[in-house]
Structure formats: C-alpha cells, structure tokens
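Students often ask why inverse folding is considered easier than folding. One informal answer: many sequences map to the same fold, so there is more than one right answer. In these notes we will look at a single instance of the problem. The structure comes first.
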C-alpha cells in the first residue's frame, strides 16, 4: 500500500512540474516584408534548455542556442509557428501556434493617369 501511495505521489508531483512552453511573438501581423521576433518565455523548473528550433511555417527553420529568434516573411498568408526546445537531460518539448502569423499583401494605390474631366453645367438662379 505504501508503494502505491509513493508512486501516486511521484506521478502527481511530476504532473505539477509539467510545463507548456510559452512563446512571446512580436509583430505577428503586418504587410510584406514582415519581420517577426520570437522568444521562449517559459521558466523551466528542474531542467536547462540548451537548444531551440523554430519552424516558421514557410518551409524554413532556424536552430539557435539562445531562446530568441527572428524571421522575415516575404509572401502573404497565414503561418504556423512551432518551437522545439531541447534540454540538457536529453528530453525535448514543443509548442505549436496554428495560423498565428498573418502577413498581408503590400498595399497598392491605383490612381487613373488620364482622368476624364467633365464640366458641370452652371445652374441659373442660385
């Protein structure tokens, strides 16, 4: 009975220390070219992050020892961001934010180069 209690206690303590990674995303909406900055803001308990891989959603990725990264988007669309973090004990964790980055087409102005002018007839008696 004591062994079962100890096992349940250890499982519950492990669940209390389980963390979902959190990412701070700066500048996640805008027109092309859009520079997005990311930072792993998780305070990991009992483990040390040693490496991060950032998947930008446009078939590119970036591996970095630091908990920060940045990426420029040159095509409009919705993009999914994924971060995988590796720890010194050999374990890894990840978080995915579907369609979190929204890149808009560059706006364009259309002005007629040959406007047609027309005369407005004058009203008499005004």
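Output (designed amino acids):
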């Amino acid at each position: 009975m004591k062994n079962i209690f100890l096992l349940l206690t250890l499982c519950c303590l492990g669940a209390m220390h389980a963390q979902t990674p959190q990412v701070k995303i700066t500048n996640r909406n805008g027109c092309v070219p859009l520079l997005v900055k990311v930072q792993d803001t998780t305070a990991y308990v009992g483990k040390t992050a040693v490496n991060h891989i950032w998947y930008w959603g446009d078939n590119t990725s970036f591996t970095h020892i630091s908990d920060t990264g940045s990426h420029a988007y040159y095509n409009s669309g919705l993009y999914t961001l994924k971060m995988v973090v590796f720890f010194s004990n050999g374990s890894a964790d990840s978080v995915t934010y579907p369609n979190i980055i929204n890149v808009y087409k560059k706006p364009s102005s259309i002005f007629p180069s040959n406007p047609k002018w027309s005369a407005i007839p004058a009203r008499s008696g005004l």
